[in-house]
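User: Please run a holo structure prediction.
Assistant: Happy to. Please share the sequence and the ligand.
User: Here you go; the ligand is heme C.
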Amino acid sequence: MMRRLAILVGLTGLTAGHAAAQDGAAVYKRCAACHLATGAGVPGAFPPLKSNTASLAATPAGRRYLALVVIRGVSGPITIGGKPFRGMMPAQAGLNDAQVAAVLNHVLKGSSAKPFSASEVAGYRAGGTALNSAAVGRLRAGTGAK
Ligand code: HEC
């Protein structure tokens, strides 16, 4: 009985890990509508998700900003790579902490950024419940990222 339980727990763990890896690309489909499949963005409208996200992910303030952009949305004015953006990204409703982590890790693939975990995202979510998209936008200047 114990042995069967252990096997079951082991299997569940495997499936969960696999699902998380797949989730990043699957969740990113909803981002691609604006940021494009490549993450190149559209000048003046939708920012790129390349070196800007990698440099944001290198600091605690930047990591908090990245998670809250997805959870709470973001609106300008913000400056990204020297270019002004005055758009509005709606909060990506319905994503749980593991899915937010997975989609950010998908965006950061190929960079040297430390991967996001679901529990890291949970902490940012809990501390950001009072922020609207404009307040998230104002956080960007304090991250020191370009
Ligand atoms: C409806 C269009 C839309 C969708 C869908 C969308 N975004 Fe955005 N995103 C934007 C806009 C517009 C901005 C810039 C807001 C501004 O102009 O102030 C932005 C900004 C960002 C930023 C900030 C970049 C920086 O350097 O400050 C990140 C990160 C980001 N989006 C990631 C995502 C991810 C990940 C998803 C999917 C889970 C997603 N976005 C879905 C429109 C969108």
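The pocket of heme C is lined by residues 27, 30-31, 33-35, 46-47, 49, 52-53, 66, 69-70, 74-76, 78, 80, 85-90, 92, 103, 107, 137, 140 (CB under 6 Å).
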